[in-house]
Design the sequence.
C-alpha cells in the first residue's frame, strides 16, 4: 500500500492520501461499495484516484459502529422507525380497548352470544305458542291454528337451518 502525505498550511496536520485500489484493499470492499460510500459522504474523495485515508477510515468505522449498535444504515433506521410506530399503535389500540372496557362500552363475545341465544329461544317459544293461544281465545279454528303452527315452524326451521 502506498500512502502519500500532503503537507498542509502551517499548524495543520498532513492529509494522508491513498489510491482507490489501496483503499478498497484496506477496507475489504468492492469498487461499487466505494462509490456508494462516496455518494453517502462516508468516503472522502480528494480527486482522481485519490482518497483521504484518515477521514475515510474514521467515517467508515463510525458507519460500521452505527450498524452494529442498531442505528444502522438508512434502510435499517427506516425499518426500525416503522416497527416502533407499529408497536406504538398496537399499544395505543390495546389501551383504548382497556379504557372502553373499563367505561362499560364493551362486552365479552361470550356474554353477547349467551344473551342473544336466550332472547332468541324466548322469541321462538312465544312465536310457537301463538297458534294455541289464538285458538284458545277463539280467534282461530283448529285448521287455521294448525296451518299457522306449520307455517311458523317452517319459517323458524328455514331461518335456523334445522328443526323448529
Sequence:
Amino acid at each position: 500500500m502506498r500512502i502519500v502525505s500532503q503537507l498542509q498550511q502551517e499548524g495543520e496536520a498532513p492529509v494522508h492520501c491513498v489510491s482507490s485500489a489501496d483503499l478498497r484493499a484496506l477496507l475489504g470492499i468492492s469498487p461499487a461499495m466505494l462509490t456508494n460510500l462516496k455518494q453517502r459522504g462516508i468516503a472522502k474523495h480528494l480527486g482522481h484516484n485519490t482518497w483521504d485515508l484518515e477521514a475515510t477510515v474514521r467515517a467508515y468505522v463510525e458507519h460500521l459502529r452505527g450498524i452494529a449498535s442498531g442505528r444502522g444504515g438508512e434502510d435499517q433506521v427506516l425499518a426500525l422507525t416503522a416497527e416502533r410506530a407499529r408497536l406504538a399503535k398496537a399499544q395505543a389500540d390495546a389501551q383504548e380497548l382497556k379504557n372502553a372496557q373499563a367505561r362499560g362500552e364493551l362486552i365479552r363475545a361470550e356474554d353477547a352470544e349467551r344473551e342473544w341465544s336466550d332472547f332468541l329461544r324466548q322469541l321462538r317459544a312465544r312465536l310457537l305458542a301463538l297458534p294455541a293461544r289464538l285458538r284458545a281465545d277463539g280467534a282461530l279454528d283448529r285448521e287455521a291454528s294448525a296451518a299457522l303452527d306449520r307455517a311458523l315452524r317452517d319459517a323458524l326451521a328455514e331461518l335456523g337451518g334445522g328443526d323448529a
